[in-house]
Amino acid sequence: MAIRIEGVTKRFGDFVALLDVSLDIPDGELTALLGPSGSGKSTLLRIIAGLETPDAGRIWLDDRDVTRVPPQQRGIGFVFQHYAPFKHMTVYDNVAFGLTIRKRPGSEVRTRVGELLRLVQIEQFANRYPAQLSGGQRQRMALARALAVEPKVLLLDEPFGALDARVRKELRSWLRRLHDETRVTTVFVTHDQEEAMDVSDTIVVMDHARIEQVGSPRDLYDRPANQFVMSFVGPVTNVDGSLVRPHDLDIQTEPAEAAVEAMIDRVVFLGFEVRVELVRRDGSHVWAQVPRDVAERLELARGQIVYVRPTRAGMTATADGGVTGLEVGQGAVSASAR
Amino acid sequence: MTAATTSAAATGARPVESTARRRRAARLGVRSIVLLYLLLLLVLPVAMVFVRAFEGGIEPFLKAMARPSFQSAFWLTIQIACITIPVTTVMGVITALAIVRRRFPGRWLLNALVDLPFALSPVVIGLSLFLVYGVNSPLGGWLQSMGITVIFAMPGMVLATIFVCLPFVIREVIPVLREIGTDQEEAAYTLGASPWRTFWRVTLPAIRWGIMYGVILTTARALGEYGAVAIVSGKLSGKTETLTTHVEERYLAFDLVGAYTASIVLGLLALVVLLGMQLLQSGRLRRRGPRTSDTPGSAGSRLGTTSPAPDGAATPGGT
């Protein structure tokens, strides 16, 4: 089911959570709402779910205006940040909840819950209580519970936020596979750009109650609309007032055209990639990511003088980090007007 | 030489030994003070009541219990408790929900007002009810004309008991409601449950222990209330006498065995309530512990996955 958000504004007292936000989410896609805390992404998700009512604007699910429709009647599934398990019910009863509320026949409930528990691989914990599950299991139980009612839209609020790094990565690829199988329109909120890049078809970058940019992970990374998006979706370093990705810096041992001189302060081996921290003559810091073999060929070492040249056009850095122009060059786009 | 070493060792060891001894003495001191305190204030007086009541054997005790005025006081006390408990429980849960979940002007005032019965002396509560519902007041007079006597009758006594018991359920439920938050309720909404069904299936089970503690405290207070009830009841023997006022009446009539008997019955009722609370508490702790097998016919057998779940995966509170 496609989601259309039209000019939505939401205030909590004096705090503006969303300001005139419009967004189209196509049917069957996996979309990430990415932004720092307080950017309004969770509020937007809760408004789609019907858990909050917008002060202005409309929400459409396909061609149905659901702005004033309560969450019970929207056909959505919601996974909460801390999973919100029903603590007094077993795992089985948690997953069965939506079906028993709909008064489905017992045999159907049993079959469906059995399927879902197998799908999320917690069938052996069916008669445990949520408190007896690990974080990852609780998370999967919450997913099974939301999927039980066959939602047309699946909404997930920071679904992996409370898990440790390894479980998070597992669940990430698992969610992606699940989405590829079910093709349910899915929107999830995250503040982790790597997670957003890893899982989603489309990323919506939000900051200060507004949408900064919408695009595929690749788009956002290569053609960020502004400085905020650029620095939020990937690493950046500042060379002479121009923001570039650290892997777009070419390091040479001889002076070259358009290259700036710098001294190596630190060389950090991170497996395949090597982080080179540099100090300019004026005391400013720059860092570069180079492949291991390059670092070895150039025999990069602390104290060495090298010459650094951006291989792609950077973005002009402004002090306020607000709207920026782009330097003309390879892969550059004009800063999109909001 | 040997003498010097021993004395050195002795001086070295002495401070250690003496601190240990001092600590032990301090511990014993604290213990005996607490025990003496409890003995003088709790155990001795209560024990004396038992001793005196059964001084002449069980016969006078049973005779006192057979007195019509005792019987009437006992049943009236039970009746008042039976009305007070459901009323304060239902209204208490509704009030707690309003205070925690709703945003309305004057919410803080309501929250403060709930504690009024704790702050006011029961005598003042009784007097204030007397002023509002007495025959000489407009409201009391009107009710009287409708054939409802409040003061010096059971309605007034119930009102007084409800007044003093009002905060218990509310104060027990509010922190539980705050702790569980709205997540589970919102999850139920997104799964299609109406607010009403959400209350019964999600909110109520989550706050049931808070309610139980509130009910137990309410019961204890409803049985034992004296001041407010004494004022509004008029203490008419055999008519508006509760167990507590009956104790006083017997005492003033120099029927000490009668007074002790009623006291013991009150004490036993309190004991039952306290035991109930202990049972609930231990039952709750047991339920919280890990359980491998469940009740028959539960999810596991329904799914045909009765094999115990592999362990080690569960890390409660791992989030």
**Strand-pairing-aware structural class of chain B:** mainly alpha
Strand order of the largest sheet of chain A: 6-7-8-3-9-10
* Biggest sheet statistics of chain A: 6 strands, mixed
Question: What is the 3D shape of chain B?
Answer: flat
Tell me the name of the CATH class of the domain at 67-286 in chain B.
Mainly Alpha
CATH fold-level topology of the domain at 67-286 in chain B: MetI-like fold
Distance between the termini of chain B: 65 Å
Largest interface, Cβ cutoff 8 Å: A-B, 51 and 36 residues
Q: Describe the biggest sheet of chain B?
A: none
Mean pLDDT of chain B, to the nearest integer, reads: 83
Q: How large is the count of helical segments of chain B?
A: 14
Helix content of chain B: over 70%
| SSE topology string of chain A | EEEHEEEHHHEHEHEEHHEEEEEEHEE
Low-confidence stretches of chain A: 321-338
Structure, described:
Helix content of chain A is 27%, strand content 31%. With 338 residues, chain A is an alpha+beta fold. The two termini of chain A are 26 Å apart. Chain B is mostly helical and 319 residues long. Chain B has 14 helices and no strands. The longest helix of chain B has 52 residues, at 2-53. Chain B is flat, with a radius of gyration of 28 Å. The N and C termini of chain B lie far apart (65 Å). Classes of the chains: A alpha+beta (338), B mainly alpha (319).
